[in-house]
Amino acid sequence: MPISRREFLGCAAGVSAAGIAAANGLGSFSPEVAPQRSGCVVVDPGPACPLRESAAGFAAALSKLSVSHRHQTSLEALAPAHIMFVPAAVSTEPSAVTKLKSYIEGGSVVVYETGAAFLRPEEFVIHKRVIRSVFGVSLHDPVRLWDSADSFKQSPYVDYHWPVVTKVRDFSRVVPISDEQGETIAWFEKIPVAVQRRIGKGRLIFLGSPLGPHLLSADREAVGWLSAICSSC
To answer: Considering 20, 68, 183, 205, which has the largest number of Cβ atoms within 10 A of its Cβ?
Structure first.
């Protein structure tokens, strides 16, 4: 059975660093393609999301990094932005994901953090099918990284190799990812859990390991990775 949101957040909060290092040299984002494109947006996945704290984590970290951003409450009504964070996404509607892909093709950077590890098996199948058909990214069955018997004996880490080399603790489950057209940017041991690739004029960054709750808990490494994304994109 998937780990509960309460269990995940309790473990994430217990191991997170106490503060966020200040970001240096972050400027505002300027549109590259369409003049009406705004700088940065965080999409709230809505009440059906199994990990709503993830969106709050991205928003809180961006604020402390002094990155101007706005909130969007619906993928269907989403307007284009230079960089778009879609936390804990569990999209089952191809039209919404197709709209995201069209924005990427036009020059947007989309950071898509899947919430599939917290879905019921039948929901996971639908999400997996949509992501494969629209983004060309293959998701595999979630892998549980710990259990209550030995969770503190060996802390699992996700190793990020782009845009900065860092380790982020993860005490939940990860969704293994494969993308023949993209570049793997993070692993748990030998399991690929994040990819990035160019689509048209923009970039898709797909995360199979939840990052937002760690941002909400002020995890130093998670915030450092987010700062590097904002600087490089």
So the answer is: 205
Which strand (E) or helix (H) includes residue 230? helix 220-232
Two tokens at 18? 């106490």
pTM over 0.85: no
Cis upstream peptide for 163 (omega within 30°)? yes
Which DSSP category does 117 fall into? G
In a domain, 65, yes or no: yes
Residue with tokens 């020059």: 107
CB atoms within 10 A of CB 66: 13
At 47, list the tokens: 């009440």
Evaluate if residue 219 carries a pLDDT over 60: yes
Greater confidence, 146 or 128? 128
Verify cis geometry, omega within 30 degrees of 0, for the bond prior to 94.
no
Residue 74 lies in a domain: yes
Q: Are 205 and 45 in contact (CB under 8 A)?
A: no
**Is the distance from CB of 157 to CB of 167 less than 8 angstroms?**
yes
Residue 194 lies in a domain: no
Integer Cα distance of 230 and 110 in angstroms: 11
Average pLDDT, integer, range 174-202: 94
Q: What whole-number percentage of the chain has pLDDT above 90?
A: 58
